[in-house]
Amino acid sequence: METIIKDTIATKLEQEIQWLEAIIDTALTLYFKNESNYTSVREIPPPDIYDLDNEYFRLVHKYEMSFEERVVLILTLLPYIKPQALDVFLIKNKNIDAEFSEFGGIKIEKLYGFIPTLETACFIVGGADDIELRLNFMKKINKDHFLYRDRILHADSYPIRLQEKLQFSDEVLFSIISDKKYMPTYSSKFPAQLITSKLNWEDLIVEPRIMNQLLEIQQWLRHSELILDEWNLNTLLKPGYRALFYGAPGTGKTLATTLLGKTTNKSVYRIDLSMIVSKYIGETEKNLGNLFDEASSKDWILFFDEADALFSKRTQTNTSNDRHANQEVAYLLQRIEDFDGLVILATNLQSNIDEAFLRRFQMAIDFPKPKYKERKQLWEQMIGKHFEIEEGAEVLDKIAKDYELSGGEMINVVRYCAVKAAENNEKRVHLSNIMTGIKREYLKSNKTFN
């Protein structure tokens, strides 16, 4: 079945290429005033696009692409899957012994073949001698056009000119060629990492107050389009949503963020602040700009963990470095405020956040260490659900009452107990191992263990 589907996609792409080849042949025939069956390339009907599970066809369907847009899309793909189809543009103008400038294209030294540009697309659709058509093409295909706005195509510079090389963004090209969803890789240019969880919403154990606040964020993510667009509240409310999660490590801030994404079918990316702050002036803004642009086009949730490193109260501008640092913070805060998706900032201390920016949060949630009720639920979920307890499951109630631990600390205890159980080759936990694990966590925090 998989082979049949892939063959169908290849067959439909071949039909797209044949359509473009017919358009190119006609464009050249008409331009050189040779005899043709057509008076315009627009008389050549595009092939039907079926609802196939491939990024190329999804894009055509999603944006209901016009003739020009579809030409640009398949022309961009051609160098990757049938570069020889563009060899016709390598002919020379015999009158001046040079390439035809109206064909556009880029010639790279030691690389055979023709790399199309927007100029090439403009020529193909009839914009060589037709000034009005040419001007309309340039007005339409710009940085605000969905091809560039939604990062389907990548531009090397702005504003976008006809000399711009036609090239897909990495994620779109990967998705078209591989039939798989593209996930950006963590790097200095992309300082963010996809975070996921095997847990589900019902596995999140927090106080009812916190759960209600999280549900409110979840409901906004589900209904924001209805509220803003259909109910026309976009004149009063900004599309973005900003939330602050604060509390001790291991209290559920990251898990809550991940599950918000999982339950609303949105990818969650954790931002590495240490990689954002570059020693090179201008690099921080560039990296952040790329990150926010991609997140906006993909409807991601952005999670700034340990945000106090960059969102703390402004430093005194005693040196040029201080002033530059404050400029970077100001730029980042502005991008966060303008972001039309969900941004979550996590910090250990709410007092570290700039008060002026704090007022711009739609939600601020305090994640305290779990109380007795939540601790008991967590112990039952982490140990009681997976292990037989030598002394009986009722010991979990006493442990929950006597020892204050965060969820993260309890996970460390479970890991220790699991190792000991595996060493004994039995899925059974002894109370002594649980207590040893708890003692280790207390010692880490310099707390007295009784």
UniProtKB/TrEMBL annotation:
Domain AAA+ ATPase: 239-371
Short name of any one Pfam family annotated for the protein: AAA
Keyword check for Nucleotide-binding: yes
Alphabetically ordered keywords of this record: ATP-binding, Nucleotide-binding
Keyword Nucleotide-binding annotated: yes
CDD domains on file: RecA-like_protease
UniProt family annotation: Belongs to the AAA ATPase family.
Protein's name according to its UniProt entry: AAA+ ATPase domain-containing protein
Organism per entry: Aquimarina litoralis
Record lineage: Bacteria, Pseudomonadati, Bacteroidota, Flavobacteriia, Flavobacteriales
